Amino acid sequence: MSSEHWTKRLAIYDALVAKCPEFERKGKSMIYTSANGYMFSLLNKDGEIGIRLPKDRYDRFIEEHSSGPYRSYGSVMREYVLVPDEMLEDLDTLAAYLNESYAYVMSLEPK
After folding, report:
1. Burial of 44 (C-beta count, 10 Å sphere; 0-12/13-18/19+)
2. Which uninterrupted H or E stretch holds 80?
3. How confident is the model over 58-84, as pLDDT tens digits?
4. 48-62 b/e with 16+ CB inside 10 Å = b?
């Protein structure tokens, strides 16, 4: 992947996180969001965005959006779904999923 492509994806990720005032983007080389001691979204080196969801929402997201599990650095990230490219044009819908992910990690026992 070109650095230009990754830079465009970073701008999309930043715009997405900016729609969610409860948290902010973290990281310089590894870009992510976290709360309550848990990461809940991630931009990998391939420019793919993953969002962490509870099991029932995970399965539904994959089915509704023809998606799959999210991989980062060669590993499948448990509870993370891959955000399809088509969804990157609808940041309002994507922000709703990201806020849901935030609520999910906030419901977990703090680390």
Report:
1. buried
2. strand 75-82
3. 999 999 999 999 998 889 999 999 999
4. bbbbbbeeebbeebb
- Gap between the Cα atoms of 82 and 65, Å rounded: 10
Task: Tell me the domains of the chain and their CATH numbers.
Answer: 3-107 (3.90.1150.30)
The overall pTM is greater than 0.85: yes
Radius of gyration of the chain (CA): 13
What is the pLDDT at residue 1?
67
Closest residue by Cα to residue 101 from 44, 61, 47, 48: 61
